[in-house]
Amino acid sequence: MSRPFFIGVAGGSSSGKTTISARLVELTGEDHLSRIELDSYYLDRTDEPLEQRRLANYDHPDAFDWALLNDHLAALANGASVQVPIYDYADHNRSGETRTVTPNRIVVVDGILVLYDRALRDRFDLKIFVDTAADVRLIRRLERDVAERGRTVESVIEQYLTTVKPAHERFIEPSKRYADVIIPEGGLNRPAIDVLLARVREVATTPNDG
């Protein structure tokens, strides 16, 4: 089986990474494109009490299981399916369940730090950074975390100021220099998505012996 074409989609929290990745899946088809979220690879914190898990810095590189993610991408590159952990945001931990990801022609990995880890970065055939203004990202994060994750406005703002913003400035924004393509305004940038989709469709229909 030919090696998948790997795409990494990075960017700040609520920049529009998920919108772009989901749009690619929708328009390309699940039989051609598999998607992996970096959030699935948060470290297993089963041995920590809930309160300690709540206080962890989930925007720092140390929060992720890079070895497992790299192992999974290596397996996909060799034509094997993998069992990706399912993360429970309410419990701040892996749920204990997994989902099967198959080595389709295209594999998209999206997350805040997918261009940070060098070993992971070197696996990507196309590296994308979604560049969205900080105020827009904060508003989106507030709306999402309050509506979908049961958070209070105060807790979201506190987390943003203490961990999200510092981590963005220290780790995420500098990783932009590794991107092949920078997409301003994320999922709202229709022309950029159309160009990206054209490239993805080209890859999906072109045989690869790599």
**Largest beta-sheet characterization:** 5 strands, parallel
CATH superfamily: P-loop containing nucleotide triphosphate hydrolases
Mass-distribution shape: globular
Q: Taking strands numbered 1, 2, ... along the chain, how are they ordered across the largest sheet? A: 2-5-1-6-7
Number of helices: 7
Give the CATH class. Alpha Beta
Strand content bin: 15-25%
Distance between the termini: 9 Å
Mean pLDDT: 89
Helix content: 40-55%
What's a quick, concise take on this entry?
This protein has 210 residues and is an alpha/beta fold. It has seven helices and seven strands, in the order E-H-E-H-H-E-E-E-H-E-H-H-E-H.
Describe the structure.
The radius of gyration is 17 Å and the shape is globular. It has one domain (5-204): P-loop containing nucleotide triphosphate hydrolases (Rossmann fold). 33% of the residues are buried. The chain has helices spanning 17-28, 50-55, 66-77, 118-121, 134-148, 153-172, 190-204; strands at residues 5-11, 33-37, 82-88, 93-101, 106-110, 126-131, 181-184. The chain is built from 7 helices and 7 strands; from the N terminus they run βαβααβββαβααβα. A 5-stranded parallel sheet has the order 2-5-1-6-7, with helices on one face. A two-stranded antiparallel ribbon has the order 3-4.
